[in-house]
Specification:
globular; alpha+beta; 31% strand; 8-stranded mixed β-sheet; 17% helix
Length: 380
């Protein structure tokens, strides 16, 4: 397995003051402010013209649109519930940093009121410029910022459909000299909401993109979807859906025990189970979890394939980052909930002072929690 570096918080190397200064000087930032009510430009998706910064309506892509577990009493029948849509209302307010005086019950209750949002997903690519070109020209994303860290031999690029302080975005990592990664069998796909799947596929095909599933109804359902692959082999599901403020709408991961995973993400992460769907004909069950409804926010899609309990995670996909008001209480909740594992104790990163904590879920999928205030300062 290739040992590579990520910019993604807990995998940052320890930095001296001088290295921190070099890091800042080496950053090349380009922020593209966007309003959540507009869409990508038509010129960003047509065949030959260059990208444009104008903001007209587009009919294709919407723009501001994963150990053993303790049992928490979730009944087996819950996984079979078909539609349980409900929106999470997040409470605001200051949360003490120390959890020493808090009872386990209070800490577990606190997670339900924490201000949480999925911030970005991190993964590795073999050719950064090639991937940026594909995402901007074929998927209608914008390059939000890019930074090169030559002393650590890697470069990051952030892309999405809106600014990082209000939208879920993609963080690409290119490690110098590494041009190929193993995606494995555990990672599934990313989801993008579009107005017209057929037209989106037509565009991507014309630009040389790889279509792995032609447009049509989903197996066992009625939603119109299609699947494509980016140059590194990451799959994207195009989902036909009306206007949405969060078009980068899903991250799908495969798990070995769906009940266990639902319990963990509800208890430890404070996510809400939005719905489940069982497809016995095709021998799989999915669960949608998140911090808001599917049509307005990015959700985590967990897939259980009948009889499959383990997957190869490869070395390409890295993690999801989630915002929180308190990384210390977040780590305490994860420990109390059981089933997961803290891989980085809460605290500030050397040289950056952004407070984080990191963990693995029962299947070994990694997440990093980032202090909300520190995250906004980092963007500045």
């Amino acid at each position: 397995m290739v040992q590579s570096k990520l910019r993604s918080y807990d995998s940052l190397p320890l930095l001296s003051t001088n290295n921190t200064r070099k890091r800042k000087e080496s950053q090349m930032v380009r922020v593209v402010p966007m309003a959540s009510s507009i869409r990508p430009t038509l010129s960003s998706l047509r065949f030959s013209p260059p990208l444009s910064s104008s903001s007209s309506r587009l009919s294709f892509f919407h723009l501001p649109s994963l150990s053993q577990s303790h049992s928490f009493g979730l009944k087996a029948s819950r996984v079979m519930r078909q539609d349980g849509n409900s929106a999470r209302v997040m409470a605001s307010g200051n949360v003490p940093q120390s959890v020493a005086a808090a009872s386990p019950e209070n800490v577990l209750e606190w997670v339900k009121q924490d201000n949480r949002r999925m911030l970005h997903v991190v993964y590795r690519v073999g050719d950064l410029d090639r991937t940026i070109k594909f995402y901007t020209e074929c998927l209608g994303m914008k390059l939000l910022r890019k930074r090169d860290i030559p002393e650590e031999r890697y470069t990051n690029a952030f892309l999405g459909y809106g600014p990082e302080d209000s939208h879920f975005v993609i963080e690409l990592t290119y490690n110098y000299g590494v041009d190929k990664y193993d995606i494995g069998t555990g990672f599934g796909h990313f989801g993008i909401a579009v107005d017209d799947v057929a037209k989106a596929v037509e565009l991507i095909r014309a630009k040389g993109g790889k279509i792995t599933r032609e447009p049509g109804p989903v197996k066992g359902g009625r939603s119109v979807i299609a699947f494509i692959e980016d140059p590194d082999g990451y799959k994207f599901e195009l989902i036909e859906r009306g206007p949405t403020p969060e078009p980068l709408c899903q991250v799908m991961l495969r798990v070995g025990d769906l009940n266990r995973s639902i319990e963990f993400y509800e208890k430890a992460f404070g996510m809400e189970l939005l719905r489940t769907r069982d497809n016995p004909e095709y021998k799989y069950t999915i669960a949608m979890l998140g911090y808001g409804p599917e049509d307005k926010s990015t959700v985590l899609e967990l897939t259980y394939n009948y009889g499959v309990t383990e997957y190869d995670k490869g070395n390409a996909y890295a993690q999801i980052a989630i915002g929180t008001d308190d990384v210390y209480k977040t780590a305490e909740v994860i420990k109390l909930a059981g089933g997961g594992k803290i891989t980085r104790e809460p605290g500030p990163l050397p040289g950056i002072n952004t407070k984080i904590t990191a963990c693995l879920d029962p299947d070994g999928w990694k997440s990093v929690f980032v202090d909300n205030v520190d995250f906004l300062k980092e963007l500045e």
